[in-house]
Here is the input.
Amino acid sequence: MSKTNFPDIKMHSKNRIALTREDKVLNALIMVIMMLVFIFTVYPFYYVLVMSFNDGYDAMAGGIYLWPRKFSFENYSEFLTDQKWITAIFISVSRTLVGT
Here is the structure.
């Protein structure tokens, strides 16, 4: 072990600080909290994606949480064949390209 200017800090080989039990518990608690924040943040986006790949009539029945019951690309084909959305996407991309 190497010596430091701080007598209460113990050093491992390659100048890494040794973690105390309290540090390990706090790191584990922070990790759990951050995983929960990640899940609560990402799940709504995942849910919208799952619902977009599910059949529309089946989605109205509800009860879909992790995977589509009736997998379908019908929502995307309906979306991409509507001329209003194509025009809106074209205008958004054009404004972005011209603006930058």
